[in-house]
Write the structure tokens for this entry.
Amino acid sequence: MTEALLYYLIGINVVAFMVYGIDKVKARKSKWRISEATLLMLAIVGGSIGAWLGMKVWHHKTLHKKFKYGLPLILMAQIALFIWIYSK
């Protein structure tokens, strides 16, 4: 794995984790929210671990089916893709 890709993955996962926390705080205060599309897109572009951890740590979006089942599916797909690419 290239060094730049590793830094990207670390960065996007930290951002995803923090954004889930920010959205949880905003939900508690009835403030403007981050869209579900944005939260899911962060997972799709490589932040699936951070998004999943954010969901678990902040107890955020845990009852929404697209997050409860979607995030683990995105994570598994990304792991499978990683294994497939690096096994060649």
Summary: The chain has a mean pLDDT of 93. The radius of gyration is 14 Å. Residues 14-86 form one domain.
